[in-house]
Each structure stands twice: as structure tokens, then as C-alpha cells.
Design a protein that fits this description.
Number of helices: 3
Radius of gyration: 16 Å
Largest sheet: none
Shape: elongated
Strand content: under 5%
Distance between the termini: 57 Å
Structural class: mainly alpha
């Protein structure tokens, strides 16, 4: 039980940071200071966590939904990265 509580706490702590990152991506409209490679590795980690839960038969355990929520937020930020990359490219062509 303590392992699930700690895992859920970790996922909540990580999950609390993603809305700020998404808001920054929306507000700044640039990829400056962002790393898509970092986000890809984070996304892989969440996906592996989900696979691990399924593999262990713990798919219905308490922390599992937090993996999905966090993975969705990272995916949203990755989509914003590509939108902002296109905006950066358009700005550089105009300059």
C-alpha cells in the first residue's frame, strides 16, 4: 500500500508541473528553452509505466489513471512544441 501511495504522490507531483509547462508553451509561442527530446523520454517513461501496470495485472490500481493523465499532458505539450516550431520557422522566414 505504501508503494502505491508513494507512486501516486510522484505522479501527482510530476502532473502538477505539466499544466504550467503547457501554459508557457501557449503563452510564449516559441520553442526557445524547450527540449522535445526531453519530452519524448518523459512520454516513453509514462508509457512504460502504463505497460508495467498492465503487465503486472495492476491496471485497475490507484496510480494507473495518473499515468494516463500525465502522458496526455506531455502529449499536449509535444503538440504545442511542433506548433511553436512552425511559428518559429515562419518568423525566421519573415525576418
Amino acid at each position: 500500500m505504501i508503494v502505491e501511495i508513494c507512486e501516486m504522490g510522484m505522479l501527482i507531483a510530476f502532473g502538477c508541473s505539466w499544466p504550467f509547462n503547457i501554459a508557457k508553451s501557449l503563452r510564449e509561442k516559441t520553442t526557445a528553452g524547450k527540449s522535445i527530446l526531453f519530452e519524448v523520454f518523459i512520454e516513453i517513461g509514462y508509457i512504460l509505466g502504463i505497460i508495467g501496470k498492465i503487465w503486472d495485472g495492476e491496471f485497475v490500481s490507484v496510480p494507473t489513471p495518473f499515468y494516463f493523465v500525465d502522458a496526455i499532458m506531455v502529449a499536449v505539450d509535444m503538440m504545442l512544441y511542433y506548433r511553436n516550431w512552425k511559428l518559429d520557422q515562419a518568423r525566421s522566414r519573415c525576418a
